[in-house]
Amino acid sequence: MNLIREQDFVDSIADALQYISYYHSPDFLHAMHAAWQREPSPAARDAIAQILVNSYLCAEGQRPLCQDTGIVTAFVKVGMQISWDTDKSLQDMVDEGVRRAYRNPHNVLRASIVADPAGNRKNTRDNTPSIVHVELVPGDKVDIRIAAKGGGSENKAQLAMLEPSDDIVEWVLETVPKMGAGWCPPGVLGLGIGGTAEKAALLAKESLMAPIDIQELKARGPQNRAEELRLELYEKVNRLGIGAQGLGGLTTVLDVKVMDYPTHATSLPVALIPNCAATRHVHFTLDGNGPAKLPAPKLEDWPQIALDAGAPMRRVNLDALTAADIAQWQPGEKLLLSGKLLTGRDVAHKRLSEIAARGEAMPVDFRNRFIYYVGPVDPVRDEVVGPAGPTTATRMDRYTDFMLEHTGLLGMIGKAERGEATIESIRRHKSVYLIAVGGAAYLVSKAIKSARVAAFAELGMEAIYEFDVEDMPVTVAVNTEGHSVHASGPSEWRAKIGTIPVFTE
Questions:
Q1: Which residue in 14, 20, 264, 314 has the most C-beta neighbors within 10 A?
Q2: Rounded CA gap, 65 and 82, in Å?
Q3: In terms of C-beta density within 10 A (0-12 exposed, 13-18 middle, 19 or more buried), how is residue 228 classed?
Q4: Can you list the positions of beta strands (E) in 46-130?
Q5: Which residue ranges make up each domain of the chain?
Q6: Are 252 and 242 in contact (CB under 8 A)?
């Protein structure tokens, strides 16, 4: 009978979470590199390149792939023949590992978990509690699969209670475009089918823990209905033309995973959960012989990609920008921003609207400024700021008209599409919306030369900062006329894909 020591278990959890915060798995890197090689869409190709360069920099510097270092989910299979050397619960041990990982001074990870979710939503400060799923199985080992799931992709999860005669493929193809680009494609889709509502969701999440192997499946052929669905959905979802970051292109998904379970004769529960371009998960086993050993990959295993410095880009001085300047920008155009910009997310926007409602003065002057939707990771060593990639802009839609109407704000930077009412507000106020690449947080942080808290310091990563940036890469997503690249890009590439042969590795 193997004895699993508390210290070994906790250390393994902590080490694994640090490991996946800065190392992409080889299967993901291979799939992303293959997608980059075959991508003809310039905007999507550039976005994938930024993700791959960011991945290399994170592996080299051992810093987070994304500023959203995720909510921790662990699938733990406990062999019934093992014994434990601990007086703690399994949940407590996982949480202790999370606590140590996220507070590691050498690589601080962002604490994003809030308690009292329907009330005051107070941050727990150490990213606990985690989500732990436990299964007792035969054997004398503990099998652990652990992931850190970002909110941008998790928020796009979908659940439907279909009727037995409904077409699952049709439902997925209707659902994926409605998810928008906030989940940071290209990534992996997990599909859970059957069981009950909660079982389908669990199957979808668990399916995302498997390696990317769709090309191997294509080569050998499907052996059951779940594998047939994987192949069909992989091709048909990619033919939607959504592309990297929703900019339009050939690759929207790197793989589609399907897990199923018997269900009631009158039911067909189906859950769809995406994994983003910062896919983070790892699998290890404990057998009583110490903590898990996770091999550090070699930097030479990363695809060597240089960003295309020769591509045409408009250089922008944020400190001298005018409404006349931004009126020249076109959807899909690449910009390099230099100068000072402000930051702010949901909580800051809510506070600003409350201050305005009370008739009080704004704590920050937004006139002719840009606001960047970001919640950065705390800096370590000589960093000015930690990884600082964009958050999903649609969460700020409810505040956009207020900001443009009452603050003199010139433009916004985030990721993903904006809603129709927000685009109309942007058009009416002759503003613009720019996007940075989700999944390239460490790369973006390299452009930030100084950072200071400008307001709401008590909010931590939700505070308003002032960044001084140099050559920060962005793309025009909505111009002053209200034309959106997230509408035109996928539409253009959906038509083109119909004339492009199916690609193979």
A1: 20
A2: 36
A3: middle
A4: 71-79, 83-85, 114-115, 122-123
A5: 1-150, 151-277, 314-490
A6: yes
Residue 256: which of 307, 205, 305, 208 has the closest Cα? 208
Structure tokens that stand for 344 in this block: 């702010």
Separation CA 278–CA 210 (nearest Å):
15
Decide: pTM greater than 0.85.
Answer: yes
For 150-198, how does the pLDDT look when each residue is reduced to its tens digit (9 = 90+)? 999 999 999 999 999 999 999 999 999 999 999 999 999 999 999 999 9
Tens digit of pLDDT for each residue in 111-138?
Answer: 999 999 999 999 999 999 999 999 999 9
Report DSSP state, residue 23.
-
Fold adopted by 314-490: fumarase (3.20.130)
Phi and psi dihedrals of 286, rounded to 5?
-110, 135
Write the DSSP string, 283-295. Answer: EEEE-SSSS---P
Read off the pLDDT of residues 226-248 as tens digits, 9 standing for 90 and up: 999 999 999 999 999 999 999 99
Q: Are 32 and 171 spatial neighbours (Cβ–Cβ below 8 Å)?
A: no
pLDDT above 90 covers a percentage of the chain that reads: 95
Cα gap 63→218, rounded to integer Å = 35
